[in-house]
Write a structure and sequence with these properties.
By secondary structure, the protein is mainly beta. 0% of the residues lie in helices and 48% in strands. It is globular. The model has no long low-confidence stretch (mean pLDDT 81).
């Protein structure tokens, strides 16, 4: 696989939740395609300049390296993720399940 090869995966149904995690990739590029559901995403270059946008079935959200983002599922959602192969390249700033790196 070359350096621009992509990985695709379909996430299981994400249940409605206030937020799951607040993360930032350092190398990974990702596009999320929202197949089912309604959600909002807070994103930006830092915690002081986050912008909130609503997404619906069929919408796409691009997450470049360095972009902080937090997903709020308003309904149960199904997300199709396409990314570069940097699977472990995520820094969790907040996490519903306590998976934060020190």
């Amino acid at each position: 696989m070359g350096p621009y090869s992509k990985l695709c995966r379909e996430n299981p149904v994400c249940k409605s939740w206030p937020f799951l995690k607040f993360t930032v990739p350092s190398k990974k590029r990702r596009n999320d395609v929202y197949r089912v559901g309604n959600l909002s995403i807070e994103s930006g270059p830092d915690e002081n300049t986050l912008h909130c946008s609503d997404f619906f079935s069929g919408d796409v959200f691009h997450i470049p390296p360095g972009k902080l983002h937090r997903i709020h599922a308003k309904t149960d959602c199904r997300i199709f993720e396409v990314s570069t192969p940097h699977l472990e390249d995520v820094v969790r700033l907040q996490d519903k399940y306590g998976r934060i790196q020190s």
